[in-house]
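FIELD: query
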Amino acid sequence: MAQNDLCGPCRHDNNIKHAKKWCTNCEEGLCEGCEKVHGSLKMSRNHNLISIQDHQKMIGVSIVQSCFRHGQRYNLYCSSHDVVLCSTCVDQHRLCLKVIPLDEATVNAKRSTALADLEDTIIGALQNVGKIIKDQESASTTFKKQEVKIRNSITETRDKLNKHLDCLEQILVQDLTAKSNNCKSANWKTLQNLKLANQRLEHLKQETEKMKMLGSNLQVFLGTREINKTVAEEIKSIKSSVSKIKLYKINFGVDSMILSLAENVRHFGKLLVTEINANFSFKDTKIEQAQIQVSMPTTNIRDINLHLKQKFKIKKSGPYGYNVERCAILPNGHLLIAHDLGKDQLTEFNEKGQHIRDIPLLQRPNNLTVIDSNQIAISYGRHIEIVDVTFKRVNKKFKLPECCVGLSYQNGKLYLVAREIGIMVYELSGKLVNTFYIAAFNVMHIATAVNKIYFTDEGKNTINCYDMNGEKIWVTRIKSISLPSGLAIGENDDVFVAGSASNNITIIRHDGKESKTLLTSADGIDEPQAIYYDKQRKILLVCDKASTNAALYTVA
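FIELD: result
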């Protein structure tokens, strides 16, 4: 019997009763007796009650009603910044003129333009993806016709030749089959990705419909914004995939001398696959038009500099020394340090480098990555945990086939390095969705941008860039970098690299063709290994491996 089917007040009194109603304000079930009491109390008589059956349908819709930072329920709304607030958050918005009660802001949420725009966005995205799928299916049919036509041409030409050309015909047909399979494989892969995107959008549409039909105004108000973010990320991913779609065309030409000089011809014919950008258009929807578009100017890499903001010692009192493994900056600006302390824990600091707390864990962590404002992922050898940023609960835990030596989050997926396999891609549910087989024995650090995967190979002394399909884009070896370790993605997909043995921090242009050394040992760094870039604050965190130094730099 699930807890959601039980009456909350009765369960509190150690009584087991089935719930008939669900209070969306209190987020607990009510039996018939408790429902009457609930409706008679002044503080709860105006609460929104729905049937348990309707509540079960809403379980899959992700709506957060409490502040992840302070654990309090949202009760205020700042329309100046379009954010919901708890009673503690409001201190940061004291100068804002448009802070109103959440009850007032959520009036008529089901009839709001935000919800209507969300529905239009999902429908528009589904229409776009559906059209592109049809175009791809049509392209696949056309390609098959081209293939049949060429096969017939090959056969007709072969009939005019003597047995001497049979061998050459076989070679050409094999070549055609190989090229055709490659093209069809690429087309099939594109179709699968688009269909998966279509399924995700359908799911979001269903969630939105359920939310609109069954949710309270508060749930609709909050859910609209949560789903808005997911839809925007999904559309951004689809656009990126659509921009890379290729159309293939195979042409066949008979050798002009084949009929008259059969005994001298060495090739039956030639196959040419023409690759053309499909240039499919993905029409923008209302949700994108409503967003503020901030274009990042392309900065000359030679103009980028680091300015010391704060320097502090990681080490606190105690018998243990530190060997920093990984680091991260949380959305609230706090710093997380994973280190070999001889204890199973993380350490949290504030922006000034002041020690806040030690966070106990089940095992010694060797990797961590920030997922969103609510979650981070931590790896322990062959295990991954997705935990709440408050560390009060584990949202998901799953096992890996090999030890994880590098971890990064991007586009709703975890990218990790397994030394005996390569790069493995997991959904947050723990489902393995892709594997890129690379020589990863000396790969310890990985970082991801929207369309790129970066990793360092300490054995080869190289920095590597791959696309999201596991195809190599570039590999570079920079003389000034020795033992490349930590990575962090900067603006425009440029990448910061820590040279552990060379005692420097270098930035490399996203195309791998240009670089600049930003910090050296003269700046006080000593074997830098763990680095992290906060794009929102434009701050780079640098942690030395063996010493106790850590520093925050503003990037300008």
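FIELD: remark
The two ends are 57 Å apart (CA to CA).
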